[in-house]
Design a protein that fits this description.
This protein is 18% helix and 27% strand. The protein has 435 residues and is an alpha+beta fold.
């Protein structure tokens, strides 16, 4: 459960309405085909070459990285959650070309696939270009490293609070424009940091920036396109069997829905956490059931958010084990059916009241679950980690109810994880490409 995300989302809405003019605050409506959602990817040497690299190498097939030797710019950074003082880092910077999605941007989420040797980290950022031609400031979308060897120099991964200004705000993992200040274009930036004097470097394999317009009225329930019962054999893991484990990281249970969902999909593809990795974490030897869930919760933990529900952090974690990952939004369950047909489970984010989805038997201010298939009547089949045991995880929800609360609460937010060999299904024709 992501209560803090719910609270800040409400705060974002109130702040936006407060700062908006009456005309700008009008609700945007539209049917499914009018919803503007775009995913922009950079995942090859050619893609990165469209942008500008400073003090970085981009070699086909190897990603972006800092060269082993050479004079580099430096900066200091004091880990706010660590015991050490300010440390000096060398860095290189990649900045994307200017991207014009063709509509006004209300929200943006940046996700990344990187590899970070001990002591190295990355800092993704986003900025928008307003219709006036002025640029917003660069908003930091997180400070990420995959490791947790703090004594050896790893930083504590964190989102960055306190970035609100007259143009926009960052709520954990999402840029939200102030109404009337919606960008019409954007750039994404990535800084690759290494300790001064080191020859190590992070490697950026890919980046994705999802942008979208806000929508008002939720579209009618989408038509079922598969026409038959289809269900993927995704392993079922309960978050609740971990209640009380690692209290310094939320203590399992309801706050671990995101890493539990990530673990299900990671293991579905056979990209399991190696035993040696599990054995490297003190305390995991005491976990009797599905220790990979605990491992994921620790390694997706956001020390500012104080939780493991940061969307891009979960995606970045899964990439460490060879999966290509991204965060985006889908317009409907009909779009999600394309992934199920292709054999790709979809991790969904949503919140609901008991009145909105009574078949759930409970309500949530923020929850993740894995869409694994559809019944013959088109109702979604979910691996819902809120089950008391692994045997209680499989659930079926009513299509109308699930689709409505998913779209209404998160705008159809999803995590997409696939191995390199697996192609994503084709985008829907006639609408902006959102994966």
């Amino acid at each position: 459960m992501k209560l803090r995300k719910f609270i800040v989302a409400v705060a974002a809405l109130m702040l936006t309405l407060t700062m908006a003019s009456p005309a700008a605050a009008q609700t945007k409506t539209g049917d499914d085909t009018e919803r503007k959602i775009t995913s922009t990817h950079w995942d090859s040497h050619r893609d990165f070459a469209r942008g500008a690299s400073n003090h970085l190498l981009s070699v086909p097939g190897t990603g972006l990285r800092v060269p082993r030797v050479g004079k580099l710019p430096t900066r200091t950074y004091k880990d706010p959650f660590g015991d050490a003082g300010a440390r000096k880092y060398e860095y290189g910077t990649w900045t994307s070309e200017v991207v014009r999605p063709g509509y006004s941007i209300d929200e943006a989420i940046v996700s990344w696939n990187v590899r970070t040797p001990t002591g190295t980290w990355v800092e993704p950022a986003f900025r928008g270009k307003l219709a006036s031609g002025e640029w917003t400031k660069w908003y930091v979308m997180g400070r990420w490293t995959s490791g947790m060897d703090f004594e050896a120099g790893d930083i504590h991964r964190t989102s960055v609070d306190g970035q609100t200004d007259e143009d926009g705000q960052i709520f954990t993992d999402t840029f939200s424009a102030i109404s009337g200040k919606e960008p019409v274009a954007f750039q994404t930036r990535m800084k690759l940091m290494r300790p001064a004097g080191s020859h190590a470097s992070p490697t950026v394999d890919s980046m994705t920036t999802m942008t979208n317009e806000l929508f008002g009225d939720v579209p009618e329930t989408s038509e079922f396109t598969l026409g038959k019962h289809t269900e993927l054999k995704v392993p079922a893991y309960s978050q609740n069997v971990h209640a009380g484990e690692f209290p310094e990281f939320g203590g399992g249970g309801e706050v671990w829905c995101s890493p539990t969902s990530s673990s299900m999909v990671q293991d579905y593809w056979g990209h399991r956490v190696p035993r040696r990795e599990l054995d490297s974490v003190e305390g995991l030897e005491q976990i009797q059931q599905d220790p990979q869930v605990d491992y994921a919760a620790l390694h997706a933990w956001d020390y500012a958010y104080e939780g493991s529900g940061n969307w891009p952090f979960n995606a970045a974690y899964a990439h460490r084990f060879g999966l290509n990952t991204q965060i985006t939004r889908l317009r409907s369950l009909a779009e999600a059916e394309r992934f199920i047909k292709a054999g790709i489970p979809v991790i969904t984010s949503l919140s609901w009241s008991l009145e909105e989805m009574p078949e759930a038997g409970w309500e949530s201010t923020g929850h993740l679950m894995v869409l694994v298939g559809f019944t013959k009547d088109g109702d979604p089949i979910l691996n819902d980690p809120n089950g008391k045991t692994n045997q209680d995880v499989r659930r079926v929800y009513k299509r109308e109810n699930f689709e409505k609360v998913w779209q209404k609460s998160s705008g159809g937010n999803v995590y997409l994880y696939t191995p390199a060999w697996k192609k994503l299904p084709r985008n829907v024709e006639g609408v902006t490409e959102n994966w």
